[in-house]
Structures are given as C-alpha cells and as structure tokens.
Amino acid sequence: MENFEVEIIDAKIIADNNKKEISERRTKRGFKFMALGAIILLGGCISNLIMPSMNDTYNYILYGVTSIGASIVFYGLYCVLE
How many domains does the chain have? Predict the structure, then answer.
C-alpha cells in the first residue's frame, strides 16, 4: 500500500514540474513575440516618419505593418498571461 501512495505522490510532483516547464516556455515565447512585435512597430513608425505621404506604400506601412506588429504583440501578451 505504501508503494502505491509513493507512486501517486511522485506522479503529482512530475505533473507539477511539467506544468511549470510548460508555463516557463510559454512565458519566454511570449516575451520573444512581444519583442518582435515591438521591433516591427518601431520600424513601421520610423519608416512613416521618414517617408513622405505621397504614394500607396505609406498607407501599406501605416496600416499593414502596424496591424501586423500589434497583432504579434497581443499574441505575445496572450502567451505570457495564459
């Protein structure tokens, strides 16, 4: 009977360790996504400040790159806060 109780306790400890490892991996991945999204947003902001607003490329960068960067940041937040 004692072996069975020890096995149950060991299984719970292993399950808790697996949950912690998965959580740590998600958190690290989330911070990487947030950094990537922030870099994309910064690049889009700088390119919009430098480029004149005369052509369609301006609108693509203004709305397209900003939307992609913000989406990546929010996905990173989701991974961190999950």
Answer: 1
